[in-house]
Amino acid sequence: MTRFGIVGGGLMGHGIAVALAQAGHRVKVYDAEPATLAALDERVLRALERCGMPPDDMRTVRARITSAPTLSDLSRDVDVVIEAVPERLDVKREVLEALEARIPAVMPVWSTTSVLSLTEVAKGMRCPQRLVGVHWWNPPYVIPLVEVAPGAETDRRFVQEACDMVNGMGKTTVRLHRDVPGFIGNRLQFALVREALHLLEQEVCDPVTIDTVMRASLGLRWSAVGPMENADFIGLDLTRNILASLAPHLSAELTFPALDTLLSAGQRGRVSGGGLLAWPAGREEEVAQRLDSGIRRHLVEP
Amino acid sequence: MTRFGIVGGGLMGHGIAVALAQAGHRVKVYDAEPATLAALDERVLRALERCGMPPDDMRTVRARITSAPTLSDLSRDVDVVIEAVPERLDVKREVLEALEARIPAVMPVWSTTSVLSLTEVAKGMRCPQRLVGVHWWNPPYVIPLVEVAPGAETDRRFVQEACDMVNGMGKTTVRLHRDVPGFIGNRLQFALVREALHLLEQEVCDPVTIDTVMRASLGLRWSAVGPMENADFIGLDLTRNILASLAPHLSAELTFPALDTLLSAGQRGRVSGGGLLAWPAGREEEVAQRLDSGIRRHLVEP
């Protein structure tokens, strides 16, 4: 049993808390926003319900997660601290500075960033060698993957320790040789999203069609056979020929007018009731349940 | 019941034959390569075995697929012809010319191309208005998705008819507003593969790690929730911020040195016993079974 302190009780922070508590660890959560902290217990409960856990187990797991009223409370009697605050360099640096003032110099610090450069995040830290990028996927208590990466100054022992701890929770850990913005998963994800937006801008199809294609072919295939194994399967000569022929047509854009147009019109997605798709009442819950049940079904051995 | 004639008995051609026969249609297959044609019945049988079909049904479905010794035999007593020959413009054009000399002017012609421009493929056809891009995903008797696209001169009635027929087989059809190289699925796929190769070239990780990331997170997520729905879910403002921050780092390459290096060393993938990954004996069969069982498990309603 390890004692974790998580700074940030949002989607990622409370999700990681649930994943850690399910694996038997104790977790304290702090958030600078009192409303977020006040909602923690309710959000944890909903997450555990989504896991379909029996009531007795649910009580046990829930009792392992407590909220810390201040950063000083969070930093007391913990073994590892995790920053799970929004993806802004200034916010993350400020939190890390405040944390380092309160914890021993040898305590591991994990960052949930995958979009910012971990090396940049670590700049200004008293002990940057203990900062490890530990990037969970949403929801962390459902998705198996955790990406672990070092910053330029990270001590490899902290990286190995993080991998061992996360693997010990039954997660699937991958280790990056070095820190790059987006790690592996988000680079792959947003390379695809960039091309999807390109197809919308070229009026080849609408957003619903993109999702249909992904759900009825590529998602299904990639959950069973990865793209590298598939490239070998069809042959690397064919793969190279297809790439050489398609690459000049693929997006290399740095701006995203399809998103800008929607955002200018106040269409921000789920929270505004509409974005690329319509978001009538009930869709949010339906999507969350579809994600959980779809993934669980796939993870069950036949 | 519709009578189909397929030119090309390779991976795609015999796979489509099985998908059509399963849906109750009659299929003739012709291949210019006698060895491919001779292997047809054996390949069909293996495909049906992979479907886990009861022996009686298997015999019924198998009897609906026959081989045609010549292109003239193929063209007789069919309602729709499908070209499923290799992705080379000259090969496809030659086959279409030979087909058109043998079939009535009103008969629909479907092309399996998704990488070549359909408009280019149609150039030189006597009746280009009947050529429809009908792109199946491998294996066609397992993957639900079929992409349907018009060339610049295609008559929309032929497109609608193709959609109706494929939907009638229980497939998930998407229709492109216009023909673009790679259609939707292969553009999305190879945008991601391009970035995966970029990560290898930057020595961020090895090929196995790419596949682990895809199978343990993105593939699982995308088979349940598409990337457009996910962008709305996390918020389009966040999506735009992440894209703007990652895009300058994402691959916009037109050359693929990681593949060139392997190919120069004779590492062509599965067929040469090694490529991005090692291919010891038995891996080919294991991958095919993993793909089928993974997808079937996901398609079953909970």
* Largest Cβ-defined interface: A-B, 110 and 110 residues
Task: Tell me the span between the first and last alpha carbons of chain A.
Answer: 32 Å
SS summary, helix count of chain A: 14
Shape of chain A, please? globular
Give the total of domains of chain A.
3
Strand order of the largest sheet of chain A: 3-2-1-4-5-6-7-8
Question: How many strands in all of chain A?
Answer: 8
| Fraction in helix of chain A | 40-55%
CATH class of the largest domain in chain A: Alpha Beta
3D structure, described in words:
The structure is a homodimer of 302-residue chains. Chain A has 3 domains: 3-175, 3-Layer(aba) Sandwich (Rossmann fold), CATH 3.40.50; 184-251, N-(1-d-carboxylethyl)-l-norvaline Dehydrogenase, domain 2 (Orthogonal Bundle); 266-302. The first copy, chain A, is built from 14 helices and 8 strands. Chain A has helices at 11-22, 34-38, 40-50, 55-63, 71-75, 89-100, 118-122, 156-167, 185-201, 207-224, 227-234, 236-246, 257-264, 283-299; strands at residues 3-7, 26-30, 65-67, 80-83, 109-111, 131-136, 145-150, 172-175. Chain A has an 8-stranded mixed beta sheet, sandwiched between helices. In chain A, helix 1 links the parallel strand 1 (3-7) and strand 2 (26-30). The longest helix of chain A is centred in the last third of the chain and has 18 residues, at 207-224. The two termini of chain A are 32 Å apart. The model of chain A has no long low-confidence stretch (mean pLDDT 95). At the A-B interface, strand 8, helix 9, helix 10, helix 11 and helix 12 of A face strand 8, helix 9, helix 10, helix 11 and helix 12 of B.
